[in-house]
Amino acid sequence: MDPAVVEPLYRAPLAAWVAERKALAATVKAGGDRDGAAAIGKLPRPTPSAWAANQLWFHARALFDRLLEITRALGRGDLAAAGEQRAALAALREI
């Protein structure tokens, strides 16, 4: 399945996710792709934490990417990055 087809679904508000999934599946089915519609209909609703991460990915990509970079540095043992990680997390919480 083309990720561009389902991206709007993952941008949708969490409370509207199931309705958006049904509408997207119906649109895809109307376009003649029954298998694609069935696959969309089976997509699981994201958990609230996964949904929040998706929103940060879509709306604060540069800061989200920076957090991932800092976290990789911490994983390599660069403990000096801990302060940067806290600052990046604080900035993301403000969004």
Give the averaged pLDDT, no decimals.
Answer: 94
Total strand count, please? 0
> In angstroms, what is the radius of gyration?
17 Å
What is the terminal-to-terminal distance?
30 Å
- Which H/E pattern describes the elements? HHHHHH
**Strand percentage:** under 5%
Query: If helices are DSSP runs of H or I spanning 4 or more residues, what is the number of helices?
Result: 6
Shape, principal axes of CA atoms: elongated
The residue ranges in which pLDDT falls below 50 over 5 or more consecutive positions are none
Main sheet characteristics: none
What share of the residues lie within helices?
A: over 70%
* Structural category: mainly alpha
